[in-house]
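Quick start: read one record
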Amino acid sequence: MKRNTYIIIGVIVVLTLGGGYYFLSNNKKSSENKTQTTEGQNQSKPTESQEIKNEQATNNENPQGTKEEVTPKTYSNSRYSFSFNYPSDWAIETTLNPDNFILKKGNEKINVSILQQESWSQTLDQFFENASQLTITDKITVNGIEGGKYTSSSQTLGERVGQTFYLPSAKVFLDFQTSYKPSDNTKQVLENLTKTLKLN
């Protein structure tokens, strides 16, 4: 009788230990599966900082909203034998004087004028000396053509900038002048186009 009791108790102990081991094993596997699932979700779902970096990388590789380089156009004047380049997104607007015209883009303007040589302005120095309303800021030479940079101010309208060149073969002065209160872009366009000025 005692022997049978011991056997029964042994069986119960074995079953209890086996059940406990099975339960612990299942819990461990379930925990590992949950951890792997969470890690997989974390890896597949980018963080906010990662999304920003990815967006920045995409924008760097294929930038949006950036200005494309504008191919310049060439203006050539056969009467006074000169030419220069200007941005293709700017247009030429004629005036009543056939020698003069306006380069413009929206509200941005550069007046281009031919000034005839007068008795009081035979040279570039004489021209600037007698143009009291202009303040000379620099003397320049572009492709062998002498010129000068200047500013012109008005108490009511503000300041404008310009550049004047002397064309010896035609014996005229070529003047480029912005409108009052020019934008930085207009000033840069003026600088760029006068650098391409040349005699034909």
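The chain has four helices and ten strands.
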